[in-house]
Amino acid sequence: MDSCCQTSTEEPKMPMQCPVCNQKGKGVQLITLKALLQPRALENIHPELSYAFCANSDCKVVYFSDMQTFDKNMLKVPVFQKDDALDVPICYCFGWTRERLIQAVLENQHPIKHIREKVQSKRCGCEVNNPQGVCCLGNVTAFIRGFDKS
Questions:
Q1: In which domain, by residue range, is 68 found?
Q2: Which end of the chain has fewer CB within 10 Å, C or N?
Q3: 118 and 144 share a domain?
Q4: Are residues 63 and 91 in the same domain?
């Protein structure tokens, strides 16, 4: 299995656009869907297809292929890009929610350093914890930068 914080070399066979919002999706490994879809949705995946993640916050679709979609209500976890609640994880492996990150920044802690250390010690499982199926450090960094500017 690839390291959880490396992008998979498997890309969808063709550029895929979300059938609802038309935004280009990012390919995800099948293991991510298997880990995060609720049982009823999991029963309907087509393992031979390539799936992509839709990051558009205004779109209800999380995963799609050329044959089907899975909406945010079909996942076991809330999706950071689609739910702006403070208790939604940004880092799914280590429980860093928006609220926890804000508190850490206000207290001059260094959550990015903490997460990076855990990743380097091979303790993350982003491919099965993060709905994007990839490392969360980009999301965490962007959130903190956005918070620091406000």
A1: 26-74
A2: C
A3: yes
A4: no
SS3 call for 4: coil
Whether residues 58 and 101 fall in one domain: no
The pLDDT profile of the chain, 150 residues, written as one tens digit per residue, is 445 565 444 544 555 899 999 999 999 999 999 999 999 999 999 999 999 999 999 999 999 999 999 999 999 999 999 999 999 999 999 999 999 999 999 999 999 999 999 999 999 999 999 999 999 999 999 999 998 766
**How far, in whole angstroms, is CA 126 from its chain's centroid?**
8
Which amino acid belongs to residue 95? G
The Cβ of residue 93 has, within 10 Å, a number of other Cβ atoms equal to: 20
In 14-147, DSSP assigns E strands to: 26-28, 51-53, 61-64, 69-71, 89-91, 96-97
144 and 90 share one domain: yes
